[in-house]
Amino acid sequence: MDLLDETKHIFKKRFMREPALIVSAPGRVNLIGEHTDYNEGHVLPVAIDRFTAVAASSRADRLCRLYTANLDEGFEFDLDRLLDDRPHWVSYIMGVLAEMERDGWTISGKDIVVNGTVPVASGLSSSAALEIATATAVERLEGFQIDDARMVRFCQKSEHHFIGVQCGPMDQYASRACRRGHAGLLDCRSMEMTHHRLPEGIDLVSIYSGIPRSLAASAYNERLESCRKVVKILRKTDPHIHALRDATTDLVESHKSNLGERIYRRARHVVTEQERVFELIQAMEREDRRRMGEILMAGHESLSRDYEVSLPLLDNMVEWLCRQSGVIGARLTGAGFGGSLICLAESDACDVESLSEIFLEQFEKKTPERPQIWTLTTVDGARYQS
Fold this sequence. Notes:
By secondary structure, the chain is an alpha+beta fold. It has 12 helices and 13 strands. The chain has 2 domains: 3-33 and 43-197 and 380-385, 2-Layer Sandwich (Ribosomal Protein S5, domain 2), CATH 3.30.230; 202-376, 2-Layer Sandwich (Alpha-Beta Plaits). 42% of the residues lie in helices and 22% in strands. It has a 6-stranded mixed beta sheet, with helices on both faces. The protein has a 4-stranded antiparallel beta sheet with strand order 10-11-9-12.
């Protein structure tokens, strides 16, 4: 039984009726452009074949009855009385519904079943997939027509207000709008995405490090505040600097003494990472695999040394991967502090199954949880069926 059929079956068993529709929204892997999204910069994610499915039907009242198959847990709330005492997973759904109404959409109550294959706390955006699946289901049930950018904005705001993570729009946009076989270049200021074909003969490999991470409990928000401090300092000499995407490497270097060592390095990561996004697109267009690998490695080094969101064990994993036959390059993907690595490998030169076995032998005993390796396929963004 596939994910959608399974979710439909669970809904019928839970609520004693057929769901009106089922939506599946994918997780994502970001090829390059880490921590640039909340600096209004550019990112280059792909949507992957790990999904969150939401089966849903509308109700005549304002009651929302929720159930997650992954945790075997239910919860109810009224849209007119949002509860502070709620399970963490409920906050993602409640937040989306609340932000939709705050955005001007009127919503009736819902029966919702959630079921997914995106690993939680792995850096593959299970939260964004849940938000987009929920929002898309409500959009279809209510007969709304919501453009991608608007939907992403209130999903993003739901994380700000209900989860406490000041995330950018990348994860939600990738889950909503990426295309199969392409990476989506998202301008996080204009909220426009263009699509760039991935070279043939390259496997996209995701490695869950075995180190779970929690953004709200991490230094994620502190990094964002550091970036805001840099902008305030740079604006004193250049009023055109509205976000770090507007800064150049030379400008940041010229303010090194004013910024202080740590904040300077945070700024240096963002401006050089912004450059790496376009460098990777150019390398993809030329199918220059060697250069693609160099860019991934440079991105990881910057995340580790300048932005300080890696860990020694993650650095060791990346170094080990890049020494393996057929591996083009690897780096940390996602916000960091654990989570996942992304690895690009030559399809005809790298045996991912053997790579996985050797990787586990090397690192399994060093991690809190068992690492996992998947060969991923790129997919389209959120889809629904009635």
